[in-house]
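Collaborator request, handled under Task 6.
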Amino acid sequence: MMSPHKTHTWLPLAVAALLLILGPQSSLAEEPIYRLCVPQIYLAECQQLLADPSEAGIRMECVAGRDRVDCLELIEQRKADVLATEPEDMYIAYHRKNEDYRVISEIRTQQDKD
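Structure tokens returned to the collaborator:
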């Protein structure tokens, strides 16, 4: 389980990474809504973070999973599109049947320095 301090670090960075990858969009009406999966205990923070519209024009909503592993399962079931994970979660994803997982960005914080 992540500490509340880590939530404030990885959640905004995950959204920022997605915004940078997807880039500015021309029309909000035509764009899909990307579903960001977060552990249930962080749902309120996710909703607060996404309350303001994206400057890049990307529409997102929060989806709650039981935990990060449940979020992996929600992505497999196409009930979520994006999540921020720890390295051990990517190891789990690598060994699952589904080959649709894509790492779009690696984020290192001051605590993660080598």
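The cover message to the collaborator said: "The chain has one domain: 4-21+28-112. The two ends are 22 Å apart (CA to CA). Please let us know whether this matches your experimental observations."
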